[in-house]
Amino acid sequence: MNNYYDLLGVSKIATVQEIKSAYKKNALKFHPDKNAASPQESQLAEERFKLINEAYQVLSDPFKRANYDGQLEYENIRRQQQYNQYTSTGSYNQNNFNSQSSQNNTGYTHQSRPSNTKKQPTFVFGKTEIYIILGFAVMTVFAYFLMNIMTNYSYNTYMEEANAAIKSKDFVTAQSSLEEAQMQKEEDAEINYLLGKIELESKEQYPDAIEFFDKAIMYSDINDKENRAKYYRTKADTYLLMNEYYKAVEEYKNVSALVGYNQGVVMNIANLYLTQLKDYDKASLYFDTIIENEPDLVESYIGKAVAKYKSKDYKTMGKLLDKAIKINPKNSYLWYYKGFYFWEKPISNQEEMKTQNKQNACESWKIALSYGNQEAQNPLNKYCK
């Protein structure tokens, strides 16, 4: 049975940080790429490297370590008892069993062979050993829970420090705290998420941030929908900053698949299809989703109206704006687009109707301006002199 503590060069009471530090040191020392002087040396280094990795996988996991400690202690007791039994029987000395016969006339002396052979020691598993093993098992379980409590305490403390530091924009402290927390839980979703936030907010290293968010998603519990949705949404927001609009849409859809309807997420998808991807039919579908769930939200009517305006469906555009005006007649953007509806919708050749529509358009832009929409000044200056 390999002694993992000896392999890493640490004591049996070594902390997780000490074990990790020793692992990194030994892994670097015995890495096959560092010991390629000869095929034999490379093979020996590779075997040692595998053992070191095996030792780290066991000793860095509290449960595996506790189980291993129990096996190691059992092996030590078994060997000790075998040794005690062996030494209690005394050493085997062939001379003690020699007998000499009388010499014959020729002077030949006959030496008889011993009639008894040495009895092999046997391992007796008695009550004492049972009590020792049971006692050690209790101690192992207690040590496991104690170690687990200490690990979680350290992890939670560092994570609180990191969150507070990120909130106050102290990214150096946040980075340091997260590295300490990572010593406790290397493959942790929230640590990678916060590391991604640091790359995003302090360095604007968007690809590196995406890589951390991917790790957060990979390490997260598949049933933890709330946090997984958070990771996907932040990843989508990052793609948005990178002008990767199709990728952003896909990540927002992943959020919807996890949490169901969410106004902000669906609105982002609809607006991306409308303003960036120029897919007005899909934009309309997502605005419809919002209208179905929140029929009094004016912004969704405006969004779909703009999509219909871009696809020159003026009839549907007009109906949508009329519905929205009934909900909130003081929304400036309703009147802003109402002006374009009157100005650009197809009409008959009757001059009187054309004149009326132009007047309605100019009046709509004036109302939009009165409600604070400064963009309405441009069409007023251009068309309504």
TrEMBL record:
Region described as Disordered: spans on this chain: 88-119
Record-linked InterPro entries: DjlA_DnaK_co-chaperone, DnaJ_domain, DnaJ_domain_CS, J_dom_sf, TPR-like_helical_dom_sf, TPR_rpt
Low complexity bias locations: 93-105
Keyword Protein transport: no
CDD domains linked to this entry: DnaJ
Top-level taxon of the source organism: Bacteria
Transmembrane stretches, start-end: 128-147
Stored Gene3D superfamilies: DnaJ domain, Tetratricopeptide repeat domain
Domain J: 3-72
UniProt keyword annotations, A-Z: Membrane, Transmembrane, Transmembrane helix
Polar residues: compositionally biased ranges: 106-119
Residues making up the signal peptide according to the UniProt record: none
Keyword Transmembrane: yes
Name assigned to this protein: DnaJ-class molecular chaperone with C-terminal Zn finger domain
Organism of this sequence: Bernardetia litoralis (strain ATCC 23117 / DSM 6794 / NBRC 15988 / NCIMB 1366 / Fx l1 / Sio-4)
